[in-house]
Amino acid sequence: MNALIETIEVVVGEAEGGTDDTRVLKLARPDGEPLPAYRPGAHVDVYLPNGLVRQYSLCGPNAQAPDYRIAVKRASESRGGSEWLCGQAGNGTPLRIGMPRHAFSVNEAARHHILVAGGIGVTPILSMAYALQASGESYQFEYFVRSDADTVFRDEIMASPLAGQTRIHPALAPQAVRERIAELLAAAKAQSHLYVCGPEALMQTTAELARGVLGDANVHMEAFAPSALPATGERGFAVMLDTSGKTVEVPPGKSVLACLREAGHEIESSCEVGVCGTCMMRVIKGEPDHRDSYLTDDERVAGAHFIPCVSRSKSPVLVLACEP
Length: 324
Ligand code: FES
Fold this sequence. Notes:
- The chain has 7 helices and 18 strands.
- The protein folds into 3 domains: 7-98, Beta Barrel (Elongation Factor Tu (Ef-tu), domain 3), CATH 2.40.30.10; 112-222, Rossmann fold, CATH 3.40.50.80; 237-321, Roll (Ubiquitin-like (UB roll)), CATH 3.10.20.30.
- It is globular and about 60 Å long.
- By secondary structure, the protein is α/β, with parallel strands linked by helices.
- It has helices at 81-87, 122-135, 154-158, 174-186, 200-214, 256-262, 297-302; strands at residues 7-14, 22-28, 43-47, 53-57, 68-73, 94-98, 112-118, 139-145, 166-170, 192-197, 219-222, 237-241, 247-250, 281-285, 288-289, 305-306, 312-313, 317-321.
- It binds FE2/S2 (inorganic) cluster.
- FE2/S2 (inorganic) cluster binds at residues 269-272, 274-279, 292, 294, 307, 309.
- The site of FE2/S2 (inorganic) cluster has 14 residues, from loops.
- One of its GO terms (molecular function) is dioxygenase activity.
- Its EC number is 1.-.-.-.
């Protein structure tokens, strides 16, 4: 386990709200102590026994609750992450998770919130809806699904106070989805912020339409896939490990991770596309050129961490460490 990453031991429990291909799980500390509170929209990294790391949004109705809830959709081409959680994790199975991460949050200055979810993308959006409902803020929740039977948390939502602000849209064709989003935006109140999570096509369509009406800063997206293919860079630079003092050249077209490994350094990795954080290193000196989808905006500004599987350097030399 990467020493820079703080993890928590939890056990798995069954929860309600799933569908044929989506399992809802409760995660709790084995000793019953409360897990850290989180902000709606947060996610955790789940470290699976097969070495994979997967990101799941915390979708419980109360971000202060002592345990967490996640929903896992069985991916049609699972590489072992969703497959294991849907098929093999049983009641009481131990797991390690990371601390809640906040890359997707409601904007506290917004006067109105437009929540748009597609399929399993409902998970971060649902926790936002519960929080907005509880605080009495103005919001609307649009939930696009393949069919009624595929609607995760359908009964719960419709039996809750969210029902009054929620519209579930089963089986809409892409053009109809586009028209519905355009309709929402045409009626958007001043200082509205829009949040979207779901399939790539829905996110792109929604973001493109919303940016034109609300402006870039008022549109927020959650994606657990790399935003683009990992950039291998057009310029070379050097990396120095503070432990060995040795310098490793990183040419264009090759990742820092690959170069460090070739030079004999052992660095853990999992996704190798900048999503999971497993390979994270500490920055001692130099200016990173962040290309990952893992670090939050605040972490990028702080400049203390670096994701070597995809990120580059703006300075000619970057000095890194593996240990805290
Ligand atoms: S291995 Fe996943 S972010 Fe680098």
